[in-house]
Amino acid sequence: MGICEVCGNEYDKSFEVVMNGQPHVFDSFECAVQLLAPTCTHCQCKVLGHGVEVNEEVFCCVHCADAIKGKTNLKDRADAA
């Protein structure tokens, strides 16, 4: 049984995530997200998808990137044909 490093729960179905060579033990994806997912620079939500980056800052979407950095050339999805 592993002990979740976020909430301290000892759980028989815990799992390990290795990030940048560092192992982490969690009891749920919720705890893994709280510790490992990046946070949007603008709205502070956890970025669970690809997100976007501007000068090493992470944003959840282009709207948030534009709100901080001004109009960018970023797109959330490909242009329609």
Concise summary:
The protein has helices at 29-36, 62-69; strands spanning 2-3, 10-11, 15-19, 22-26, 52-54, 57-59.
What does the secondary structure layout of this molecule look like, with pairings?
Blueprint: E1 2-3, E2 10-11, E3 15-19, E4 22-26, H1 29-36, E5 52-54, E6 57-59, H2 62-69
Antiparallel strand pairs: 1-2, 3-4, 5-6
Polypeptide structure, described:
With 81 residues, the chain is an alpha+beta fold. It has two domains: 1-36, no CATH class; 37-81, no CATH class. It has helices at residues 29-36, 62-69; strands at residues 2-3, 10-11, 15-19, 22-26, 52-54, 57-59. The chain has a two-stranded antiparallel sheet. Strands 3-4 form a two-stranded antiparallel sheet. The chain has a two-stranded antiparallel sheet with strand order 5-6. A hairpin with a 6-residue loop joins strand 1 (2-3) and strand 2 (10-11). It is elongated, with a radius of gyration of 16 Å. The N and C termini lie far apart (52 Å).
Major β-sheet annotation: 2 strands, antiparallel
Distance between the termini: 52 Å
> What letter string, H or E per element, gives the SSE order?
EEEEHEEH
Q: What is the overall silhouette?
A: elongated
Mean pLDDT: 92
Overall helicity:
10-25%
Provide the β-strand percentage band.
15-25%
Rg calc: 16 Å
Extended strand count: 6
- Oligomerization status of the protein chains: single chain
Q: Class by helix and strand content? A: alpha+beta
Q: Any low-confidence stretches, pLDDT <50, length ≥5?
A: none
Helix tally?
Answer: 2
Total tally of structural domains? 2
Biggest β-sheet: strands ordered side by side in the sheet: 1-2
